[in-house]
Amino acid sequence: MTTAFDERMMRVALGLAERGLGRVAPNPAVGCVIVDETAGRIVGRGWTQPSGRPHAEAEAIDRAGQAAKGATAYVTLEPCAHIGKTPPCAQALIDAGVSRVVSALRDPDPRVAGAGHSMMAEAGIDVVEGVLAAEAARLNEGFLTRVSSGRPMVSVKLASSLDGRTATHSGHSQWITGERARNRAHLMRARTDAIMVGSATAIVDDPDLTCRLPGLGDRSPRRIVADGRLRLPLTSKLVRSAHDVPVWILTFPEGDAARRAAFEDCGVVLIDVPAGPDGTMDMSIALSILGERGITRLMVEGGSRLVSSLMRAGLVDRLDWFQAPKIIGGDGYPALAGLGIDTVDEAPGFELLEVLSLGEDTLQSFSVKR
Q: What band does 260 get if pLDDT is binned at 50, 70 and 90?
């Protein structure tokens, strides 16, 4: 049986888990609070640390100390039951003497998949599952997608005018959205494992693709460019900063050997991806490779052809669309290239998750209907 207090404490744990987003891949971002219910106070709290170790439960137990005995632990994901780089968290909770564990979500990892809950129940702990499960699943959508599909969760971030244009007919685009919207986009970068753009966007815009919010400069994710023919200039900001913030280029394997060596000398990691039947990069294979390399949350920031190719392949999970109260007109550059849709019924469908007002601009977040 769960109570309103259980949900309130689980929300605290979910808030802690969010701190790990963008820093713990390929591990899930987990939060844990240990509560002395008699005294009505939190005695320990923790969240997954960078690179996934220590786990949230270990952090919370360490902070709680002896106060963990007889307490209730609220965990956003089932405690692990296997021995990896650290002992099983389920066993750590047993050893700490907690009397009750409330979890939000069962871990789909085959090494766990209910075994953590069973281990604790067999030790006499009262185990409650499924508290705020939907919220926990949304927070760890990247981890869950990688486990179930072998690829990262893909979110597309667009910034456009009201009529879906990203630049004027002359190519001018700075700035369509205002400062608050741009700051929000930088925060989103800090919470993802990698950012990907197409080669045209990387060449024309010459972006940094870093997080430039005060105090979050160390949270810049990997930068990925889909550049089948290695057109990106060696003098670009991305290449010149590859030793500071990782840069990966997805490219065709048959590229010029000297040019490949030049990129690698600059610190760029080249990842070979074959072409699909239409001669363009096979993004399904590309995403599987990124999943194998531990990426769980991938944010795509353009360009229009890359986004459309992902849409056509059914590889987009989330859409975050910033819109400015401006009209550019039909001669401007569209946010999306053609999708080849003949009827409205063929159009991808979306479910609205959230609407945020950011000064004059608006951010609408959607999940893709399957």
A: very high
Q: What is the mean pLDDT of residues 173-195?
A: 92
| pLDDT tens profile 268-315 | 999 999 998 888 899 999 999 999 999 999 999 988 999 999 999 999
Pair of tokens at residue 25: 């891949």
Contact 321, 161 (CB under 8 A): no
Taking residue 62's Cβ as centre, other Cβ atoms within 10 Å add up to: 14
Residue type (1 letter), 141: E
Sequence-distant (6+) residues with CB within 8 A of 238 are 202, 206, 207, 208, 209, 223, 225, 232, 247
At 200, give phi and psi (nearest 5°).
Answer: -60, -45
pLDDT digit string, tens, across residues 211-228: 988 888 888 999 999 999
Q: Which 3-state string (H, E, C) describes the chain?
A: CCCHHHHHHHHHHHHHHHCCCCCCCCCCCCEEEEEECCCCEEEEEEECCHHHCCCHHHHHHHHHHHHHCCCEEEECCCCCCCCCCCCCHHHHHHHHCCCEEEECCCCCCCCCCCHHHHHHHHCCCEEECCCCHHHHHHHCHHHHHHHHHCCCEEEEEEEEECCCEEECCCCCCCCCCCHHHHHHHHHHHHCCCEEEEEHHHHHHHCCCCCCCCCCCHHHCCEEEEECCCCCCCCCCHHHHCCCCCCEEEEECCCCCHHHHHHHHHCCCEEEECCECCCCCECHHHHHHHHHHCCCCEEEECCCHHHHHHHHHCCCCCEEEEEEECCCCCCCCEECCCCCCCCCHHHCCCEEEEEEEEECCEEEEEEEECC
Q: Tell me which residues are annotated as active site.
A: 57
pLDDT for the residue 84: 63
Q: Tokens standing for 168?
A: 């004027």
pTM here?
0.92
pLDDT tens profile 325-340: 999 998 998 998 898 8
Angle between helices 115-122 and 89-96 (to 10 degrees): 20
